[in-house]
Amino acid sequence: MSPDDERQPLSPRRQAVLDAVRDADTPLGVADVADRLAVHPNTVRFHLDALVAEGRVERMVEQSSGPGRPRTVHAARRGMDRGGARRYRLLARVLLGQLASTGSGAEAAATDAGRAWGRYLVEQLPPPRRPSAREAVGRLNAMLADLGFDPQPVGEGGTPDRVRLRHCPFLELAEEFGEVVCPLHLGLMQGALAELRAPVEATRLEPFAEPDACLARLTVTTGSA
After folding, report:
1. Could you state one GO biological process linked to this protein (predicted)?
2. More exposed terminus of the chain, fewer Cβ within 10 Å: N or C?
3. For the whole model, what pTM was predicted?
4. Which residues of 157-177 are buried (b: 16+ CB within 10 A; e: fewer)?
């Protein structure tokens, strides 16, 4: 597991092994940790192996000036502890609250941010081919599905002219900060279609247009297949 990944909380025994390594002034061998915790060395070795694999502990060979085989010792990896709870929703509320407080420019700023990310997130076509309107809506639908919107294109005949968004991955935030979250969602769709050079645009997003869905409006702009 990468050190950048979120981790599950440690078991009490593994946490005790990690604490023993952290609290030590010098790197510790397996027997050193076992003595401090009064547990079997094999138990310590098992937990140390897991802590090394998770990137919490470093394993090294101790420099020795005397005869005999150098010891393998362990030290806590320096850096912020990556265990514990995360509060990303609180961070999102702080940032959205600040953006919403900026006044009349907040909606435009949120839409622009969404457009930039829509360009980045959509799966592009090999240049220089441009998609048909129907194909572009398919790519848009795939991006929205990956983001968790549970999209459903709707329309008579050829190209869908609406997309029902049956799930909002930011529902609680949208209910509290809809004036910036919903424009950001519209911007995501606009940016994706612009990046595809699609002959269709996302012109409007109607939040909670139906009891169980928001509704995005699409408009064909040039000849579509």
Report:
1. regulation of DNA-templated transcription
2. C
3. 0.71
4. eebbbbbbbeebebeebbeeb
38-78 pLDDT per residue, tens: 999 999 999 999 999 988 999 999 876 567 788 899 999 88
User: Which domains are delineated in the chain?
Assistant: 12-76 (1.10.10.10), 105-220 (3.30.1380.20)
Nearest partner of 109 among 55, 184, 199, judged by Cα: 184
What tokens were used for 130? 């441009």
- Inter-helix orientation angle 12-23/30-37, to 10°: 110
Residue 55: how many other CB atoms lie within 10 Å:
16
CA–CA distances in Å: residue 206 to residues 131, 166, 167, 182:
26, 12, 14, 9
**What does the alpha-carbon distance between residue 152 and residue 166 come to, in Å, rounded to a whole number?**
7
Is the bond preceding 153 in cis, omega lying within 30 degrees of 0?
no
* Chain-centre distance for alpha carbon 23: 33
Helix extents (H) in the chain? 12-23, 30-37, 41-53, 88-100, 106-121, 133-147, 171-176, 178-195
C-alpha distance from residue 53 to each of 19, 59, 77, 85, 88 (Å): 17, 10, 12, 21, 26
